[in-house]
Amino acid sequence: MRERILFNLLQVATVMVFAPLVSGVISRLKEIIQSKRGPSIFQPYRDLWKLFHKDEVISEQSSWIFRFTPYLAFVTPIFVTLLIPVLTTYPLFFAFMGDMLGGGFVLSLGGFFATLAAVDTANPYGPVGASRTRMVAFLAEPVFMIVFFTVSFVAGSTIPYIVQQRWVTPLANFFEPSHVLLMLAFVMLILAETGRIPVDNPTGHFELAMIDESKSLEYSGPGLALMKWGGSMKMFVLLCIFLNVLVTPWGLAHEQTLAAVVLAIPLVLLKIFCFVLLLVVIESSLSKLRLFRIAEFLGAAFITSVAAMISQLFAS
Amino acid sequence: MTDPNVIVWLHNLNALVGGLFLLVSFGIVGTRQVQGCLRLFVALSVLLALSAFLLSALYRDWHLGVIGVVDIGTKAIVIPWVLRRALRGEVFTRREVTQALNIPTALLIAMVLAIAAYFVAKPLLAVGCELAAGVNLPIGLAGLLIGGLTAALRREAVPLFLGLLAMENSAFFAGIGIAPEMPLIAEVAIAFDVLILVFVVGVLTRTVHEHIGTTEVGELTALREEPRR
Amino acid sequence: MSLILVPLIPLAAVLISLVPLGKRFAPAVTLVAGIATFVLALRESLRVVSDHQVSAIAGWVELDGMGATLLLLNAFVGATAALYSWGYIGAHGYEARRVRSYYAHFNLFVFSLVLVPVLAQPAFVWIAIEFTSLFSVLLVAFDNTHAALEAAWKYIALMFAGAAIALLGFFILFWAQQGAGGGHYSWGGLRAIAQQMPTVLVMAAFLLVMVGLGVKVGFVPMHTWLPDAHSQAPSPVCALLSGVKTTNSLYVILRMGSLLPLATVQPWMEVVGLISVAVASFLLLQVRDYKRLFAFSTVEHMGIIFVAVGLGAPGGGYGAMLQMVSHSLTKSFCFFAAGAALLVVGTREIASVRGLIRTSPVAGAALLFGALAIGGAPPFAVFLSEFFIFRAGVAQQHYFVTALLVIFIIVAFFGILLHVNRMVFGRPAENPAPARAHAVLPRTCVLTLILAAIPVLVLGVYQPRWLHALLTLAASNLNPLAPP
Question: How many Cβ contacts (< 8 angstroms) between chains A and B?
Fold first, then answer.
């Protein structure tokens, strides 16, 4: 029992501690691909440290939502980590609190409040970015739904731990058409939800073109630190869902010992870094889509997920 | 090699190829670029050949392997070459800026057609008796309908024609699943017939381009019964 | 063995007509090839009448009653069109290279048409039907005008879409046959095993082929390419297209229909046929181009044939075959007449043509003759065949269908005569079209008109015994399966 609590805490700690590292690695890799040196991979930690020691400036026109949102944006990914397999293949004791749909809702709760906060200030760029974020989100919703429905149709459940078993044994199941197409759809979804190219430029500074970055435009000091940290944790969590449930459900701890769980940490990080490599290549080779083409991109993701479901119908 | 494990693997791989085939058919409806459409068509043909190879291993019939080779030869290599020779290079850099229906709507209609194909194929599969037909027939039928949709919606000559060729590819995809014992010579002759078709259409499109000046053949609507303006 | 020669002659003519030996060489070669093909086809048909089947390669190249009828029609119209082309193409004054290209394509087209009834394996028949479309596309676009190119493009696009659908139908048919126990994949083999094949599969195959090849036949609503293509092509090619190419595709659909029991297939045939007849006869009324007029009439007649087969044995099948024969002969004649009128007047618009009988008596008389014949007036062949169909309909007690058919045929007759009457008689317009140099028609065109008119007239009153025997044999091949 005590070990279970420990593993849970370890899971949360992994996400909290290593999320900024993943962001740092992505930035460094992107710069390297462009033949530059790039910042150190630990730079996000230094940024967070610096921001926590600064004063916060808050507009007088803003309401409680503005003050409340950073905490929400920080906490919602942590809630989701309690539900998904990060380090272990067996469910920990919060796992049945909510399934993948619940996890999706919790994440979008954070996104919703972030949008509200962006509108809350009187800055004109905030609502512009907020409305665009909502557009991307509502276009991505059907894809999420169909992905989850197909996964539950195939695996017979929406609890991630149970789903994960389906595609490990036997190995031939890995190559099922529904599986491959779901992976494709989910990659497109990750690109949309975390605001990567081709949907949005995460390193852009031009406010008129921002979609996801606009949510942290008005924040400063600890608020900004929490928003940034929360954002990178959200990405880490999405990657965990993708990699540990859908793509490579290997490398997670099978036994219930501390040693196995601690061993799982570097394996999970290794998987994430491999995927990050792919992500960086995609980002560097595509260009950002025009705003109304995002609907076509997400339409393609939707069609891919529907094709996954249809293939599953045909095969059964 | 009647090892059931191998059969399961081949089945799953064939189903995967089928799923990708369906996805690429959707892609042909939804791509704007002429160049992109051509690449997707080559991918479609390669997937057809892959399915032929997998089915030839599954049914232990070398005829299907020959069909796969012929298919790659004609559709993946010769047809793009013929099209590029027959048409001027700049035709391939075009994009369709305006379309009959916008892309997300076209994709949705394609999805509905794919589901309809599944329901149409169900009673047929209940009666028939082949091993892999469960995947090939519905996907072939879906590809047929989606190719028809492409041909109906596209205005540029090359994507329209590629939609028609995709229809034929899909019919073949269904055919190798349900009729693997069809005499080899018939299927090879069909492949060469498609080649002649491409050649003829290439000549025709070039003539259209020279005399009318555009390859937006969807805009040619002068012949009708209403009084001329 | 001589059956194989029949398609080989036009194929040889393709190569020979490409040889640049002077202006008259290519047309002469084509004409000789056309006549030789017709003579051979006649011989083979007579052998079918006596032997009930001729086969050169068993299961692959065979000829039975229905095939023989179609082969005869293909060869006859091919020969008359070759004769007509001589004068028609010559009158236009194209350069030598273009003329040779025309004749090479023409021979290729005739080769593909003759190939269809001779082959017995459905996949190869599909290929032959594809060839008939492919080799006629560049003929349709021959004029290189904006309208001709548009017509050719629409033609090839719809054709190929239909062909892909039909291909799937043939695959499903093969699947059905394998499921029923195998046997040779030929028309004969399929008919033999027809009772054992699962109906749902054969029905699916029939529907796919009906839709897919129905595009080529011109069933409504897939007929949109037909008026364009059949009016823009040069007139001898139009005669081949309307007269025999659509009939070839209908032949394949009917072969598929013969594999199913009558009760299953009858509602489809009757409904689709009636819709085509109805829409075509009403669209006829508002055409502005006299070649399109005849093209719509083709759609109508294809619908009539389809309804006739749907009426069932024995009268329906016989009536359908007779209608096929009379339609092909009459429609090719109509297009020859239209071509003559085009040569004289220079425009395809009905509104610009008035008093043709005064400008060129031959063209005017021919056009009137053709219009009366195709509309179904006695004593022409079409009247006799339509009468047979009505009689079969009444005998089978399909009163409603027969009544509708009568009404639509009368509407079409009225429409055709309305337009042609105005063209042939009627006061000349205020500013007449400039007098063309070809107010005197080429001699070969006139000769063709006379030659083609003879069977149209003769078959209306007298039927040679061998023809009757051939048509009865064809009807037995064609009728859907009787209920057990």
Answer: 79
- Rounded Cα–Cα distance for residues B132 and B134 (Å): 5
Distance of CA C1 to the CA centre of its chain: 27
Distance of CA B143 to the CA centre of its chain: 7
Rounded to the nearest 10 degrees, what angle do helices A100-120 and A125-155 cross at?
180
Q: Does B43 touch chain A (CB under 8 A)?
A: no
Whole-model pTM: value is: 0.86
Burial class (CB in 10 A: 0-12, 13-18, 19+), B177: buried
Residues C46, C90: Cα–Cα separation, whole Å? 35
Residue B224 in any domain: the answer is no
Q: CB-side exposure of C480: number of CA atoms within 13 Å?
A: 26
Residues 6 or more apart whose CB falls under 8 angstroms from that of B55 comprise: B14, B61, B64, B132, B136, B176, B177, B180
Query: For the segment C167-190, what is each residue's pLDDT rounded down to a tens digit?
Result: 999 999 888 888 777 777 888 888
Structure tokens at A224: 């900004």
Inter-residue contact A117 to A223 (CB < 8 Å): no
Domain range holding B123? 4-219
Q: Measure the CA dihedral C117/C120/C124/C126, to 10°.
A: 60
Residues 168-227 of A with CB under 8 A from B: 170, 172-173, 175-178, 180-181, 184
Flag whether the ipTM exceeds 0.85.
yes
d(CA A134, CA A115): 8
Report pLDDT for A13. Answer: 92
Interstrand relation of C54-57 and C61-63 (parallel, antiparallel or unpaired): antiparallel
Least confident of A126-135, A250-259, C396-405, C433-442: C433-442
Contacts of A105 by beta carbon, 8 Å cutoff, 6+ apart:
A98
Report the neighbours of A using a cutoff of 3 or more CB pairs below 8 angstroms: B
In a domain, B19, yes or no: yes
| Residue C35 dihedral angles phi and psi, to the nearest 5° | -65, -45
**Greatest CA separation found in chain C?**
72
Q: Looking at the domain assignment, is residue B226 inside a domain?
A: no
pLDDT tops 80 at residue C235: yes
**Structural domain count, chain B:** 1
Q: Tally the domains of chain C.
A: 1
Domain extent, residue C48, equals: 2-478
* A246 in contact with chain B, both atoms CB, cutoff 8 A: no
Measured in residues, chain A has a length of 316
CA distance A26 to B108: 35
Residue C61 forms beta bridges with which residues? C57, C119
Location of structure tokens 């290997």: A250
Identify whether C227 is part of a domain: yes
Q: Would the CB atoms of B104 and A313 count as touching at under 8 Å?
A: no
Q: Which residues of chain A have pLDDT under 50?
A: none
Residue type, A102: G
C-alpha distance from residue C325 to each of C47, C95, C307, C456 (Å): 19, 36, 16, 10
Chain C CB contacts of B167 below 8 Å? 160-161, 164-165
Contacts of B210 (CB under 8 A, 6+ apart): none
Residue C484 included in any domain: no
Contact B15 A296 (CB under 8 A): no
Domain assignment of residue C483, yes or no: no
Cβ-count burial C175-207 (b if 16+ within 10 Å, e if not): bbbbbbeeebbbbbbbeebbeebbbebbbbbbb
Residues 6+ apart with CB under 8 A from C215: C158, C159, C161, C162, C165, C222, C225
Task: Output the average pLDDT for chain C.
Answer: 86
- CA–CA dist A67, A53 (Å, integer): 17
The fraction of chain C above a pLDDT of 70, given in percent, is: 96
Measured CA to CA, the distance from residue B45 to residue B26 in angstroms comes to: 14
H/E/C letters for each residue in C289-335? Answer: EHHHHHHHHHHHHHHHHHHHHHHCCCHHHHHHHHHHHHHHHHHHHHH
